Amino acid sequence: xxxxxxxxxxxxxxxxxxxxxxxxxxxxxxxxxxxxxxxxxxxxxxxxxxxxxxxxxxxxxxxxxxxxxxxxxxxxxxxxxxxxxxxxxxxxxxxxxxxxxxxxxxxxxxxxxxxxxxxxxxxxxxxxxxxxxxxxxxxxxxxxxxxxxxxxxxxxxxxxxxxxxxxxxxxxxxxxxxxxxxxxxxxxxxxxxxxxxxxxxxxxxxxxxxxxxxxxxxxxxxxxxxxxxxxxxxxxxxxxxxxxxxxxxxxxxxxxxxxxxxxxxxxxxxxxxxxxxxxxxxxxxxxxxxxxxxxxxxxxxxxxxxxxxxxxxxxxxxxxxxxxxxxxxxxxxxxxxxxxxxxxxxxxxxxxxxxxxxxxxxxxxxxxxxxxxxxxxxxxxxxxxxxxxxxxxxxxxxxxxxxxxxxxxxxxxxxxxxxxxxxxxxxxxxxxxxxxxxxxxxxxxxxxxxxxxxxxxxxxxxxxxxxxxx
Length: 470
What we know:
By secondary structure, the chain is α/β, with parallel strands linked by helices. It has helices at residues 2-12, 16-30, 35-48, 65-74, 86-89, 97-106, 119-128, 139-143, 153-167, 176-202, 215-226, 248-254, 260-267, 278-284, 291-298, 316-325, 327-332, 335-348, 365-377, 417-434, 437-442, 447-458, 463-467, and strands at 56-59, 82-85, 113-116, 132-135, 207-211, 240-244, 354-359, 383-388, 402-404.
């Protein structure tokens, strides 16, 4: 090891001792056990305990055995009988001599089994020296062909290590939905939660609101990262959080008096030629009693406006014109909901002067609607900031009203939400468990890194990995 760092010192100016100690400290801090190999280790130690059998580690490595022993112990391998390292033994697995040296130590009458991931040094050379070999595929060789190549060095390395160690270790077989959540959604949610936490820490936010339903997994992940199980804030978490029942559908209805265009766009225009009947349309708007009036007023026109008629490009304009002409009547249907919303949000925002509303995206309409109702309609005097995962900024009604984490506008079908969310949350848990706390505080996942991973999913690059069931 000394020779390596003497060369590094010569070429970079970094002192030999500092370089060596930095690498050792980094290995001890970041290394984590492969879950499959750790499980195998526990099984083996139980089977050989009290018997004349030994469990040893053999490595072609420049780190000395005392460092490897410390490293293995920290990762859970505490009952290793001996460690043989090429740099100390003057022999290697690569040329087979290290196997012979170990046989010379323990005796030729013993049976030797070796588990390794290199087909040459761990497999062929072991067999040549009379050892039995069990090949264990290297998780990084298995997983790296599917990982994003344009991530930053540190984040990409950590991300690849976590995903490969979990998905490709062989301990469990996961569903495609779980894998898509773990591989592609996990880092996005992790980075987004870090972005939210950083923003609220710097802007004196009293409370973070996670808007339903997309905010559900974000809320769970954020609390896991920054709150204790009893709801008490962890050190460094600046404010309270709450999951708020605020769907786009409810927001659109309560905003009917402020944004007629958006109301008609969501409830009528988006449903044109999609096999919705007028009964479906008016029922969804909760104004079914107004359908009779539409049929009576427009029944003598050439357009088909019967209750069972489908909403089409032929009659959609008639529906919109009727609703605009009777807008006051439409708004009266939402009076009770307006009062309920006022009471509910009054409780949520009690003693709050500035809050952040978290949503996935893309136009920030959830936060915009909240801001209008809370301050203009109900006069609660609470500043509202919208935080979204991504935004089509140039097309927003209020392009400066939201803080976007990402920079593009992907359109993803959530699929089987429960399995996807479980994969997302498991990635966040693994990241928090496997990555040192001090590193987590100083280094956050950037929007560019999260999107580099997400782009593979959006471009269909995950197909081979999931279809092969790796």
